[in-house]
Specification:
By secondary structure, the chain is α+β, with helices and mostly antiparallel strands. Helices cover 54% and strands 11% of the residues. The chain contains 16 helices and 12 strands. The protein binds a DNA duplex through helix 5, strand 5, helix 10, helix 11 and helix 14.
DNA sequence: CACATCACG
DNA sequence: ACGTACGTGATGTGT
């Protein structure tokens, strides 16, 4: 039973959503899903449970044999010792209309079942807001984790997904949402640890590493980089820093394994000190038995001196943890500093969400200006690294606009 | 409860 | 030759 004090805190924090807006989206998605199902049954020449991987496998691989027309060698999965039906696999199976229809169905179905239809049930009737839990002792790297509901994985990457961000709104008409996010914080942490000359030079001029990588991968000029190209390049940058292999890289970039291999070689030639940094983290972890962040958090890795797959995974964690964990420490320090100032300066603004490199505030109109500069200043100055930290702040009538 | 899939950083 | 970015949580299927 929560105490009165806890309840009053609950009533002041949390995030409001536009339930009526979600209901409209739900109805629209319902109709579109129905239409998609009909087209799927037509393409499959039978009706079946679209959510059943086993039924879908037998249609794709046994009945229609689509993989044989596409030079696709889909990865095997345990279920029935058959092949995968995940997005990366279906994307390549363009010899038949069915896989693309399944992907469209999955996107809408995921959004509807996980977000559109579930979020309203989390609205507390007393506060009229959603109160997620933020857990401090779950993630091995020191990140926060959010559940009931998870507000750290609200969609943003697709057009339809962004409509869900749109329904996250301020607590009342006199408030706005303020969103402040660290620009590429993990790569800046990498720059700090590695002192890589290219990374340092880029961040001291406030350039966009992901866009630079995108221009390289897709062989376009820097001003020809699209949103999608940059998103892919972001995956590649993180993937390679955290030791992705040519197999996976070729899947992501839709190139051959040989091309991917060549790209990885060129990447680490260009950013030689990144490779040195990886070796440094591995050596440290092997010697000490744990990975360590900038501020001293340890993650013990008993498998680091073992063999096989377990060792390989421990090595991934040994490289990832100091970077992801340090970024987590930086934003947690910033949260603490900001909360102190909100209280000391008797501001009405509430810090309502923390999403790994972003903080969201529910702010009265008249505090808008002070909060924008207060938050930016505290987040950027909370620690001094070898490269500057940059925070982008936005204000809006919903979470999407604040971004 | 394990697995596959997919939402986010 | 093996396995091959990391960190989470929610959902539906199937045992």
């Amino acid at each position: 039973m929560p105490t009165a004090e806890v309840l009053s805190t609950i009533e002041q924090n949390g995030v409001r959503i536009d339930v009526a807006g979600l209901e409209k989206i739900s109805e629209e998605f319902e109709e579109r899903l129905k239409a998609l199902s009909d087209r799927i049954y037509e393409a499959a020449e039978e009706t079946f449970n679209i959510n059943s991987i086993i039924e879908l496998q037998s249609i794709l691989y046994d009945k229609l044999e689509i993989h044989k027309q596409c030079k696709v060698k889909p990865k095997k999965i345990k279920l029935g010792n058959k092949m995968s039906t995940d997005e990366e696999t279906l994307e390549k199976m363009q010899a038949h209309p069915l896989p693309e229809l399944i992907l469209q169905y999955r996107e809408l179905n995921k959004l509807k079942n996980t977000y559109v239809d579930q979020l309203p049930a989390f609205v507390n009737p007393d506060s009229n807001r959603i109160h997620s839990s933020f857990r401090q002792t779950v993630a091995a790297t020191g990140r926060l984790a959010s559940d009931n509901p998870n507000l750290q994985n609200i969609p943003i990457r697709t057009e339809e997904g962004r409509r869900i961000r749109h329904v996250f709104i301020p607590s009342n008409d006199n408030h706005v949402l303020v969103s402040a996010d660290y620009s590429q914080i993990e790569l800046r942490v990498v720059a700090h640890f590695s002192k890589d000359p290219t990374f340092m030079a880029a961040y001291r001029q406030n350039l966009d590493i992901h866009a630079l990588t995108a221009a390289t991968i897709f062989e376009v000029p820097e001003d020809g980089v699209t949103r999608e190209m940059r998103a892919k390049a972001k995956e590649v940058n993180f993937g390679l820093i955290y030791r992705m292999g040519p197999e996976r890289l070729s899947l992501i970039t839709h190139t051959s394994k040989t091309e991917a291999k060549g790209f990885i070689e060129r990447y680490f030639q260009k950013y030689a000190t990144i490779h040195t940094l990886q070796e440094h983290f591995l050596k440290q972890a092997r010697k000490q038995g744990y990975a360590q962040t900038l501020m001293g958090r340890r993650r013990y890795l008993p498998a680091i001196n073992g063999r096989g797959l377990h060792r390989r995974m421990a090595e991934g964690a040994a490289v990832n943890t100091p970077i992801q964990g340090t970024a987590a420490e930086i934003i947690k320090l910033a949260m603490s500093a900001i909360q102190k100032r909100l209280q000391r300066e008797r501001l009405k603004t509430k810090m309502i969400l923390s999403v790994h490199d972003e903080l969201v505030f529910d702010t009265p109109h008249h505090e808008e200006e002070i909060i924008v500069s207060l938050v930016k200043q505290e987040m950027e100055q909370v620690i001094t690294l070898e490269v500057p930290l940059v925070v982008d702040v936005g204000v809006g009538a919903n979470w999407l606009e604040a971004h």
